[in-house]
């Protein structure tokens, strides 16, 4: 029991450190790809502390509730992952986090914020079913929704669920708000000034959003690492490779429209998942 | 208390109280009668828990059977009259298709003597008791809410002659009919109560007597009459195929046959079809959407505790008598409704229509669970019935309260409601969050349903898509409520007691039942599942191992220590409290910390204005609107597809039944 408490504490502390560090690498690599020199690796942390030190300013009396909720639910998701809880429930919790961020955008009367929130909703519509199908796909392999059972299984999921893995890479792109799916934030090259929901978020609350994004990044990479849970270091390497791949995808693609994103993920990524699950369902039932 | 008195209170008291409120024209006295009836019903429903279940009861006096037969014909004759006077031929046709076979069967075919011997008339088991509790408690709260609502409603309409008495008569009587419906075992009695609910529904939808109200009421009437016709057909089919005996004319005997008696399959499918119509499953969703014209207490009652719940109750009740193919097709029909209704909800601009589509969607989910038919799926269905009743009852009453504050049902008019009516908005937001997010009960039900849905993968995929779509339409609406300019010094509005008591009771219910879901599961759901357990589908999960302290887990059937899923209720509520409740209570912004929004420097004035300099430097009010994607997924765009698929699924459903016979 106390062992689990320690795991939880370490995860809550370590995740943002890793996430911030990865964000630093992201900015550096992106700058190099664009022919710039780029900021120091630790720049995200400098930004974070600078933002924390600023005075509190808001354009709405309720927005901060949803920002705090975004952060708290994201941390809860991460705890679900490291404590090896129910995968399906983790996805639903991630849904609450996503909805909180959307509501943060809606709870101020600002046109840019609303654009961002509406587009963020389209992103949720695009990735949520894939994540849920991922959980179902895992069930076809281990007959359980518990992450602890994934960790215990000796055969890597990647071998049998590679179509879902590819679909999950699409989710990662959407979640990291990278091109061609950076619809909601429009932060290509991290240079655009009016940035969706973030437009009306400043100072310490902006720092909280950054913190949440770092947690989110670690969480998603953790989910990807589950595809090779034994030994876990291979899974982590796969996740890091996926991260680096995202940076390249980001820089060689142009931003597409929201409608295109929904169609792409529902038509292509979802079909990958559905075929994958159908295949294993038929095999498991012994129909053929 | 004696069982016959309990049944009398549950079924007949609402009728007597209804007649009293109809006769008494004094507002306060009438309100008092409604409140006393509500209290009596609630107390009585709690007494049902003390019965040794399951138990049965047949009235000793045969006059009750005669009364019911007479009233059957009275109701059907009224439908004929309604069809003729409204010149609505569909109402007329489907009244005739009920009355002619029924009269032929009972009198010409000489069944009437045998039909009087059907016993037991009532069968009370755990599932019935769960339904009685929902009907009596939530239904009663809605009746209390209606007292004040109808007064405001008529004050606003400035009617010359009050029709509140008539309204409350049908509303209160509805509860009695519903109680009878879920307790009845004799199919003829079930049919009678079924028709009474259809009648009450018609009267309440048409209450305002506008052209639209009457048309929509008539539509509800003829659609549900198709269901009535199917039920009569099922009864006659059973009677003649069991050698003109009444052996299988009770729910109990049909259910106990467990799908092994071949000739029962078609009648079971027909009655399931009846239930699906009443549960507004596609392609019959239109009657429930049309019901929106009625005053809001009607919608609240139809959607949460009565009418549509009768439909899912019947499907759930019959689930053990499905054969596997029928189960799968029912599951896919329901799952399709869940998905299609959720998509259509996105494009709705009227608040009550969003709620209606959300109801249709959730009923689809419940029907699908009944079709999947494992113990786990049944548990999901019953959890969803309970939590949906609480949340939807609350949301409709919120919608009514909002309507009486802004006199509109349009979502766009609710913009910035958080500022005009913070208390109502707060309650509405709780209601909305409880519909689709953890840690609340509906999500728990959905989680159980998804974990159970692997048995029918096509249904599982539709569930997944629908869950994602559900998030979008709720979030969109929430967004419109929340969007405010931070004007300073807003006041909390005051609500009449007749509004606030039901509202806060249901909010308390959402939290109490959400946090205490494990005891609820153990005491109600689990035993109710045993009444509708199918027996012919093996379950992967052993239900009796599911409750672990305050939390729920899914144990593997073989080894109870191993779990395949876990839902930690308490930790999730703590996360919710830390995320939302504590910040709301302990953090507040000072006025000097508020700033105007970013408008590229074109903002006119300070934080409490929302004007900006438009073209030619004209001061213009900032206007924002929601997205509805009407061109892509509006009713006009996708309804043809929806109807084609839904009808095709029904044809397939009856097709597989025909093939298996």
What is the structure about, briefly put?
Chain A: Keywords: Membrane, Transmembrane, Transmembrane helix. The complex is a heterodimer of chains A (288) and B (661). Chain A is mainly alpha-helical and 288 residues long.
Describe the structure.
Chain A: It holds the Pfam family NADHdh. Chain A has eleven helices and no strands. By secondary structure, chain A is mostly helical. Chain A has one domain. The radius of gyration of chain A is 19 Å and the shape is globular. Chain B has 661 residues and is mainly alpha-helical. Chain B folds into three domains: 1-58 and 120-186; 63-118 and 187-279, no CATH class; 315-536 and 569-587 and 625-661, no CATH class. Chain B has helices spanning 3-23, 27-47, 63-85, 89-108, 112-115, 126-157, 164-183, 187-205, 211-241, 251-257, 265-278, 286-290, 296-304, 308-318, 324-346, 351-372, 375-406, 417-420, 422-436, 441-452, 457-482, 497-515, 517-532, 569-586, 630-633, 635-660, and strands at residues 55-57, 122-124, 547-548, 551-555, 563-567, 603-604, 611-613, 619-621. A three-stranded antiparallel beta sheet of chain B has the order 3-4-5. The radius of gyration of chain B is 25 Å and the shape is globular. Chain B starts with a helix and ends with a helix. The mean pLDDT of chain B is 88. Classes of the chains: A mainly alpha (288), B mainly alpha (661). At the A-B interface, helix 3, helix 4, helix 5 and helix 11 of A face helix 20, helix 21, strand 5 and helix 24 of B.
């Amino acid at each position: 029991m106390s062992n689990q408490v320690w795991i939880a504490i370490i995860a809550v502390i370590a995740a943002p450190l890793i996430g911030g560090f990865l964000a630093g690498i992201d900015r550096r690599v992106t700058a190099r790809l664009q022919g710039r020199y780029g900021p120091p690796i630790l720049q995200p942390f400098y930004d974070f502390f600078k933002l924390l030190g600023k005075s509190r300013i808001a354009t709405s009396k309720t927005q901060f509730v949803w920002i705090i909720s975004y952060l708290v639910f994201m941390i809860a998701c991460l705890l679900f992952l490291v404590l090896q809880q129910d995968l399906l429930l983790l996805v639903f919790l991630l849904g609450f986090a996503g909805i909180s961020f959307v509501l943060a955008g809606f709870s101020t009367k600002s046109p840019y914020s609303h654009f961002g929130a509406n587009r963020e909703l389209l992103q949720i519509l695009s990735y949520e079913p894939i994540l849920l199908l991922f959980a179902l796909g895992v069930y076809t392999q281990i007959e359980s929704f518990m992450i602890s059972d994934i960790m215990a299984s000796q055969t890597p999921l990647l071998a049998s669920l590679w179509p879902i893995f590819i679909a999950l890479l699409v989710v990662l792109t959407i979640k990291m708000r990278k091109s061609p799916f950076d619809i909601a934030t429009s932060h290509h090259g991290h240079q655009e000034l009016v940035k969706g929901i973030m437009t009306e978020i400043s100072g310490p609350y902006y720092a909280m959003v950054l913190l949440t994004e770092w947690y989110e990044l670690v969480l998603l990479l953790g989910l990807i690492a589950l595809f090779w849970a034994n030994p876990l270091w291979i899974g982590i390497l796969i996740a890091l490779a996926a991260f680096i791949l995202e940076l390249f995808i980001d820089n060689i693609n142009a931003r597409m429209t929201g409608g295109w994103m929904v169609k792409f993920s529902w038509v292509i990524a979802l079909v990958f998942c559905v075929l994958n699950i159908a295949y294993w369902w038929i095999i498991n039932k012994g129909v053929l | 208390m004696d069982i016959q008195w309990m049944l009398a209170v549950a079924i007949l008291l609402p009728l007597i109280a209804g007649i009293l409120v109809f006769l008494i024209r004094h507002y306060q006295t009438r309100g008092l009668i409604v409140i006393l009836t509500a209290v009596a019903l609630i107390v009585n429903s709690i007494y049902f828990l003390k019965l040794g279940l399951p138990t049965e009861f047949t009235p000793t006096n045969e006059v009750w059977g005669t009364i019911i037969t007479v009233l059957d014909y009275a109701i059907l004759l009224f439908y004929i009259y309604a069809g003729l006077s409204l010149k609505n031929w569909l109402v007329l046709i489907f009244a005739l298709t009920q009355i002619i076979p029924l009269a032929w069967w009972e009198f010409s075919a000489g069944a009437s003597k045998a039909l009087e011997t059907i016993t037991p008339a009532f069968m009370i088991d755990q599932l019935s008791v769960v339904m009685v509790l929902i009907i009596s408690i939530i239904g009663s709260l809605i009746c209390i809410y209606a007292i004040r609502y109808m007064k405001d409603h008529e004050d606003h309409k400035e009617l010359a002659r009050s029709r509140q008495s008539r309204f409350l008569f049908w509303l209160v009587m509805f509860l009695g009919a519903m109680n009878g419906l879920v307790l009845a075992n004799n199919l003829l009695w079930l049919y009678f109560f079924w028709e009474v609910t259809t009648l009450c529904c018609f009267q309440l939808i048409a209450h305002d007597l506008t052209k639209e109200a009457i048309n929509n009421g008539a539509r509800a009437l003829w659609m549900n009459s198709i269901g009535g016709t199917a039920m009569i057909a099922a009864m006659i089919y059973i009677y003649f195929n069991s050698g003109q005996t009444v052996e299988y004319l009770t729910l109990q005997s049909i259910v106990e046959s467990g799908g092994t008696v071949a000739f029962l399959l078609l009648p079971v499918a027909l009655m399931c079809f009846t239930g699906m119509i009443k549960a507004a499953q596609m392609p019959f969703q239109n009657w429930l959407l049309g019901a929106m014209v009625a005053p809001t207490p009607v919608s609240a009652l139809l959607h949460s505790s009565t009418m549509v719940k009768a439909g899912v109750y019947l499907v759930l009740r019959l689930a053990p008598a499905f054969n596997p193919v029928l189960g799968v097709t029912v599951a896919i029909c329901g799952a399709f409704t869940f998905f299609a209704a959720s998509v259509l909800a996105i494009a709705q601009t009227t608040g009550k229509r969003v709620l209606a589509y959300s109801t249709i969607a959730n009923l689809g989910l419940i029907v699908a669970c009944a079709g999947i038919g494992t113990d786990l799926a049944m548990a999901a269905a019953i959890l969803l019935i309970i939590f949906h009743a609480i949340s939807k009852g609350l949301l409709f009453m919120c919608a009514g309260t909002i309507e009486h504050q802004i006199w509109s049902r349009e979502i766009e008019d609710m913009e910035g409601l958080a500022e005009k009516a913070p208390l109502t908005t707060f309650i509405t937001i709780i209601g909305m969050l409880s519909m689709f997010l953890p840690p609340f009960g509906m999500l728990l039900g959905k989680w159980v349903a998804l974990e159970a849905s692997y048995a029918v993968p096509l249904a599982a995929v539709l569930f997944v898509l629908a869950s994602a779509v559900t998030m979008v339409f709720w979030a969109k609406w929430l967004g419109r409520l929340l969007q405010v300019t931070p004007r300073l010094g807003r006041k909390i509005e005051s609500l009449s007691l007749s509004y606030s008591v039901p509202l806060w009771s249901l909010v308390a219910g959402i939290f109490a039942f959400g946090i205490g879901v494990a005891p609820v599961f153990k005491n109600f759901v689990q035993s109710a599942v045993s009444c509708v357990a199918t027996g012919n589908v093996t379950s992967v999960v052993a239900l009796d191992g599911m409750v672990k302290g305050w939390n729920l887990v899914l144990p593997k059937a073989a080894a109870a220590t191993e779990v395949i899923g876990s839902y930690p209720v308490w930790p999730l509520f703590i996360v919710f409290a830390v995320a939302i409740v504590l910040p709301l209570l302990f953090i507040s912004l000072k006025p000097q910390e508020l700033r105007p929004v970013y408008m590229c420097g074109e903002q006119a004035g300070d934080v409490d204005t929302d004007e900006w300099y438009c073209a030619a430097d004209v001061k213009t009010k900032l206007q924002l609107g929601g997205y509805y994607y009407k061109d892509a997924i509006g009713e006009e765009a996708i309804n043809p597809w929806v109807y084609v698929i839904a009808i095709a699924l029904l044809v397939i459903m009856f097709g597989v039944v025909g093939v298996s016979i």
